[in-house]
Structure formats: structure tokens, C-alpha cells
User: Fold this.
Amino acid sequence: MILAFYPADWSPVCGDQMALYNEMGKYFARHNAQLIGISVDSKWCHLAFREHNKFHFPLLSDFEPKGEVASLYGAYDESTGECSRALYVIDEDGIIRWSYLSAVGINPGADGILNALEEMAETKPGSMNQLTPVNSNDHLLGNTVAPIELVEYGDYECPYCGRAFPIVKDIKQQLGGELRFVFRNFPLSRIHPHAFLAAVATEAAGLQGKFWQMHDIIFENQRMLSEERIIHFAEVLGLDTERFKKDLQQRSLMDKVEQDFESGIRSGVARTPTFFINGIKYEGEWGDGQLLQYLKTMLTEVSFTAA
Assistant:
């Protein structure tokens, strides 16, 4: 069993955290693990929150007596009257096998949960929080031997990824041959119903040599991502649309999107967009020039070291 205590329904960080866990259902199911979200909100608030976000796991109202369950786990904050942001993985004997207390404003992600479940099953495949190295399955744009590698995990229907799109495009233009860029799929399809199809569409376009063109046109039109519109994008790009339609149904392309998603989970991705620079997760701000300035500073350091 996985217990996820969180401060409040409807807060942005809690919403992101629970949306991520909603996508993780099949991964938890591999270990026969059930997730339960717990906060001190009322059952009516929970019902509305769960229905709005289409969650597929139960929410427990620790409302009356307030914080009783959270207190048993040391996850109740008396000063705020809210649950702490705490995670517990409990085995079939009721023993807590792993726990984690996160800062209230930080989404703790799901990599720690998955790691704990795999350790319990003695099937741990490798280290968490490490970026899966860029490989031949990735779509890479730019100089293959550039000193800076920027990897983005993104969701084509995520408004924040939409805002990041022109920023990343400007970064690519400004850094030129000093940067290689990789985009990996991380569709949160429970809250963004067209994101998975859009991701598969870019992979299908890639089979005809136009991954990046489809990537761009989808982000430029991310509020219009019905299947009909996506096929129209294929026509605009000059793709063989009949082949494209068939490729949208390819299980191998869907598997590629799911593999990207799982690699993101294992790398500690908790929301979109998430960036990695030379294999290290970037924790800073990416808007208003911060990411570009960080990369320029890093490039200067790399050049100084090389000299």
C-alpha cells in the first residue's frame, strides 16, 4: 500500500503531485500496490477534486477527528492544521518499508515510491534519479558533440510546456552548435486527454523524417489537438497521410512514448516541463531568461576548463 499525505485539495503543487500518481497506476499495479491520497479536506471537497481530475485512486478524508490518521503516521502539522507532504510504502504485513517527508511546496515525484516497491520485490533495475542516457531511440537536434546537452521531458498539451517552447527555441538559436537538444515524451494524459496522441503523432512523423516539424506545429497549435487536426498537420507538413494514419496505431510507437514516460519517472521527473543539463536535473527557473543564462554560464565554465 502507498499512502500519500498532502496538504490540501486544489493547490497547484498537490494537483501536480496527484496527477502524476494518477498516471502511475499501471506501474504500481505491477507490484499489487494500491495508492491512497490523504488530506484533511472534507469528503465533499475530495469528491469534487477527484471527479474534476479524473483520479483513478481513492482519496481519504482525514477530516473528523481532524488529522487523526495523519497524526498516527507523524504526518500532521499542528501549526497549519494540515497534513504534511509525506509518503509511505507499506508491505503486506503492515510494516513501513519506506517513507519520505517533502517540503510543503515541493512535489516529491514518484521515483522514490517506485524504487521502494522494486526493492521490496527484489527487482530493482538500477539507480533512480539518474537520467537515462541519450541513445539511438532519442530524437536529437543540433551538434551531436556539443558540450551542452539539454533534455526536456514534456507534455504537448501542458500549458507550461507551451510557454517553454519558444524559450527553448530561442536557446537553440542563441547557442547554436554549442547545444544538442533532446525532447522526451511525458504525457499526463489523465488531465491532458490529447497529449498521448500528440506524442505518438510526433513519433509517427519521425518515421517520415519530420519529427521536429511535427513537434513544432503541435506546440504552435496545442489548443487544437484533436485527431482530425493532427492529421491536418500531417498534410501541412507534406507527409504521406495514409501511412501516417496507420502509424498512429502502431504499438511500437505507443511503447516508445510509454518508455519515455517511465524513464522520466526513474529520473525523478515530477512535472512538466522538466529539464536535464548534461545528465543533471535542472532545479532552477526556466522563464525570463534564467535557463539561457544558466546555460551560458555553464558553457563559459566548460570552455574555461577546456582551455
